[in-house]
Amino acid sequence: MAEDIVKIKSGKGVLHINFPKEATFSDVRANLEEKLISGSGFFLRGTVVLLPRDVFSPEENEALQKLFHAHGLICRTKTPEEAELLISNAAAKEQQPQTPSKQDIQEMLVINKTLRGGQEIRTESSVLIVGNVNPGAQIISGGSIDIRGTCRGMVHAGATGDTAAIIVADHLMPTQIRIANLIARSPDAIEKSNRAERASIKDGRIIIEPIER
Length: 213
Known about the structure:
6-stranded mixed sheet; 15 strands
């Protein structure tokens, strides 16, 4: 993996893009493209992405917008004040009584850190972890789970009954793995390669197979 320059954080229904001020446009674009490709199927189409307006030239901002649009995301360039207003409006909307829609449940939670023993993530959305999941940590997700690192904790995808949910990790070695109402664990001895692995339900049971990112 290339150097992790870009951080993607989720908040109030939008994604925030952060990167060091000294980062070059080419490095930011390359790292963003890598994240979008590796997270294909996890970023909900139509999600709004906030990009700082005054960092790159208008032509470079347009290139990043096209990159996000190619992956089904809506990119908006905002000043900090405009971003704060948009977030406030989203928060006010969330406080209004409403029936959760299927789209609300499918939104993705992005976490840019390793989960250590004792830490728990519990959400109705899909989850992207940019880091490891250590023994003793657990993730319980209503959607799918993508781990850009090694998974040694407990992971439960499709916790609300979604049998189409999947679990992907660079190295999948969980203490326990669940998808919907099925439970499995990693074999005591398994041949490992440099390829990522995916757990999914096939023929009524959980199988783990190597994949290409």
